[in-house]
Design a protein that fits this description.
Elements (H helix, E strand, L loop, with lengths): L1 H9 L5 H23 L7 H8 L5 H36 L11 H16 L3 H23 L6 H24 L3 H12 L7 H20 L1 H7 L3 H6 L4 H23 L5 H13 L6 H23 L6 H25 L1
């Protein structure tokens, strides 16, 4: 009976604190979204935004709300949630806080796919998105094959991924040097990562991916926590280990690739969001829902701050998050080093 009583704690089910954290994150996301919709070069009241969303606004307000701000906000929310869940899944599977798609090469692979379309095919935005998706999936396949030795160990996956990411970074730099001036400008603008100019064309595909893939990830959340106990223990509890790992890796990679296709390679959200959610909840592993909310919160907040500081088309959010994320990564590595020494 004692083993049965201990099981919920080991599987990472939500604690009261974790539930409260998720609710607080959801409220913060809603409040920041409301502020984002009313803030900009053309200030609006919340009432005007609501009236326009229900079809009672004038033509100018409708253009600002439904053409400029709403799709941009939705891309920020969806991309942040997708990256948060993608990072949470990989960190859980690898058992390492560095197990993030932007650390182990998946984001770089998506960037390579997009650059190939921009530089070699001079493709449209939809073609660039497809190239990013294909590049991310192909990179994940290569990393998985290189890391496979009677299964995929987390530490080996990270090391192989870091090596592949370094090579892809060199490839991306080479592609830019061989591009025409116009293509190089377009490629560099895309590589920065951001939400400037994002519209319904970007919001639609990432929204579809999130609607389809997040429920799959949440449905496998209990199996994911059982995998953290070790393959043998998980098998003893009836978990199809390899199939679960394959499904979750596919979900994580696809979410990362679709997010990158929509907003460009935005670093550190997938790395930081699951860890921040876990620390707030003080749990062994954060619920994927909290990781999704934290990712959305980080991206919406960063976009709002950059818009207030630099204007609507000022500093791309990818640069701001990259600067903050570098500090976070240094803190994470130093804390891991101190823990290992202790």
């Amino acid at each position: 009976m004692s083993a049965v009583k201990e099981k919920p704690a080991r599987t990472g089910r939500g604690t009261p604190r974790a539930v409260v954290v998720a609710i607080v994150l959801a409220v913060l996301v809603f409040l920041l979204s409301a502020v984002s919709m009313t803030t900009g070069d053309y200030p609006l009241s919340l009432g005007e935004v609501v009236k326009t969303l229900f079809g009672f606004g004038d033509a100018g307000t409708e253009f600002v709300v439904t053409t400029l701000r709403l799709p941009r906000l939705l891309v920020a929310l969806l991309v942040g949630a997708a990256l948060g869940v993608s990072g949470g899944v990989l960190q859980s599977l690898s058992g390492n806080p560095l197990g993030s798609p932007d650390v182990i090469g998946f984001t770089e692979g998506s960037a390579t796919g997009a650059l190939l379309v921009i530089v070699l095919a001079h493709g449209s935005s939809s073609s660039v998105a497809l190239g990013a998706l294909a590049g991310g999936l192909l990179t994940a396949l290569v990393v998985g094959l290189l890391a496979f030795r009677r299964g995929v160990a987390g530490f080996r996956l990270i090391l192989v991924g870091i090596g592949v990411a370094a090579m892809l970074t060199a490839v991306n730099s080479y592609l830019i040097t061989r591009a025409s001036l116009q293509d190089a400008y377009s490629a560099q603008a895309w590589l920065v990562g951001g939400l400037n100019g994002r519209g319904w064309e970007e919001a639609g595909p990432v929204g579809l991916a999130v609607v389809v893939l997040l429920p799959i990830a949440f449905a496998h959340g209990r199996r994911l926590s059982l995998l953290e106990m070790g393959d043998d223990s998980a098998k003893g509890l009836g978990v199809p280990v390899e199939r679960t790992r394959l499904v979750m890796i596919a979900v994580s990679v696809t979410l990362c690739a679709v997010a990158t296709a929509a907003a460009g390679p935005i670093a550190f959200v997938a790395l930081a969001a699951p860890q921040l959610a876990k620390r707030l909840a003080r749990s062994a592993r954060p619920a994927l829902g909290s990781a999704a909310l934290m990712g959305a919160l980080l991206l919406v907040a960063s976009d709002l701050v950059t818009r207030l500081a630099f204007g609507e088309e000022g500093l791309p959010v990818g640069i701001a998050i990259g600067a903050i994320g570098g500090l976070y990564l240094m803190w994470l590595l130093s804390s891991q080093w101190r823990r290992n020494r202790g």
